[in-house]
Design goal:
single chain, alpha/beta, 26% helix, binds adenosine monophosphate, 6-stranded mixed sheet, binds magnesium ion, 36 strands
Amino acid sequence: MRRFDTIVMVDWSGGHDRGQAPVKDAIWAGIVRGGISEEPVYLRNRQVAEGWLTDLLEAEKDAGRRVLAGFDFPFGYPGGVAQAITGRADPFALWDWLEARISDAPKANNRWQVAADINALFPGIGPFWGNASKIDVAGLPRKGAARAGHGCTELRAVERVAKGTFSVWQLAGAGAVGSQVLMGLPVLARLRRRFGDALSVWPFEAPAGQIVLAEIWPSLINKAVKADPDTIRDRAQVRLLAAAVAGLSRGDLAACLEPRSAEEGWILGLGQEAALLSVLSADLAPPPLSDDCFALPPGVDWTPVPEALTRLRDSLHPVVGQENVALPQAVGRVLAGDIWARRSNPPTANSAVDGYGFAHAATGAGPQILPLVAGRAAAGQAYSGPVPQGHAIRILTGAALPEGVDCVVLEEDCRSDGRAVAFNGPVKPGANTRDAGEDVETGQVILTAGHRLRAPDLALLAATGQAHAPIFRRLRVAVISTGDELCEAGDTAGMGQIYDANRPMLTALLAGWGYEVIDLGRLPDDADAIRAALDQAAGADAILTSGGASAGDEDHISRLLRAEGRLTNWRIALKPGRPLALAQWRGVPVFGLPGNPVAALVCALIFARPALSLLSGAGWAAPLRMQVPAGFTKSKKQGRAEYPRARIGADGRVVLFASEGSGRISGLSWAEGLVELPFEAQEIAPGDPVTFLPYAGFGMG
Ligand code: AMP
Ligand code: MG
């Protein structure tokens, strides 16, 4: 089975036009293109849907992409019916027969009459029944029980298997599908004619074409739909079904498209419900990091910071799966795919001011007096008729430009008596108007994968028709403090005990970066306790530990990670900070930070932050670097990078905390950032430019 590049699942409707605003019981199409789930498309009526589908199939075909398009109505009638109606036992003969007779417009169609005409071809009363219109239709009973002697089978074979499906003969009432069939098959007949050999209809034909049409029934994945937060059920159905079909393995997809009744048709995926649901419930995640991702080439000794960062960056990739969330929940989350505009902004040319609109061509220099047409154009209240050349219309900000209007004069520059408007020319062509799509054009990529969504991004998404966003699942990071000397802030500290300062700092940092924090508390310097905690922490995507990371007697984290995990001590030429312990425990990356709070923070900001950002799908996050004049003197030796705690003084110069001691927590709190002094020797005098890394640029509020 050749794979499909694009999956489109359409929830059809037998009813009338549902209007502009997305509602249920209209037509919805769910799309997965190239493995990325797109925002379902709202199609207010069948005419719009047919146009949209035709364009989509043309575009996919031209691009050489293979499409599977599903429609939630039966493709055929019970055995013998096609023969009885058309004289041929060929479902396509029935499609064409219906296509020739059904007329369909947004507000009116002839489905009741066509059903009655079919009934007249059979003896007795029926088989079609049900009538949602007020007017009785001769030969079309309102109740199913009123039918008799028509001789047709009630259900197709597939409907006898799929419990809960409705008979094709029922045209009206909750859940009825008969009208959708009558109104849908003519559309499919036209698609078939248009695409010829490029299109095949399963199971009437082998699913070999570049475009394959198939009958679907979203109730197959009811369990997932019920658990979905979307308030519009039809929209959730098509989004989930498209995702489920797109995620099937090659074998499961082939099983869905096996040969079936070539006269009555069959439901795609019936019998494969478990496979479809397991696609939706699986936490799809990228492969884990390679086993030796933190390994250093042999002979590497003290590595300069930039080289260590490059090596770390190259060893990691995103480890989280994806989900689709509604916009209000998407803020702060990381986009998992590129987003293109579903709609232009503005969607139509409109007025940028309150004033009077007219055709520029009819105006010139000097005083202008134009008669006003009756009525006005306002935002959301379009003026329907054209404005004749030489006339003007009262127009308000945001109103779509009526036909015949291409420029607007500001109301303050006009006089009007209600019948005409006077102003001074010349007026520039296009004055005070906004072009359709001048901000964003439909189809334009507006945001790219890896972008962390902020409030203004939600405005852009909403304005261009996006109600949901595909995002990476939140990275879960476990935090562990180690040391026999540690006790919890607020507890009574015994002799020789200190309060655990790193854990509140690290958990707050991680939460500020948008991660889910799993606080695993404090641990004594005891291998068994640490092993148990690491096992628990391995349920997360990454682990941050502090303390015990060097090579001393009590450095249990290092010892355990070396013995039972995979540990590399990266000797990074950095102050403050001892070797940074990078390891994997049961395949989960561990960042072993030094115990000293100053070193722990610097290592977390310089190494853990960009690495976690990469793991989370947001890409490597370099800190914000600013060149600021020094407010200090310093003689720095060659051989390592230093990150003293700093803040910017009232004179705009950067000053350092008085002590460099790595236990000086007060300096961390006093500071508003770090100064970065590179590897090389440096004599710094007041006024020399130095690199300042503000805390805010590390995502620290
Ligand atoms: P270690 O890396 O375990 O050798 O610890 C280095 C220094 O940092 C020692 O003075 C520890 O007491 C101190 N330390 C370790 N963990 C913490 C912590 N969570 N909070 C405050 N100080 C700590
Ligand atoms: Mg310790």
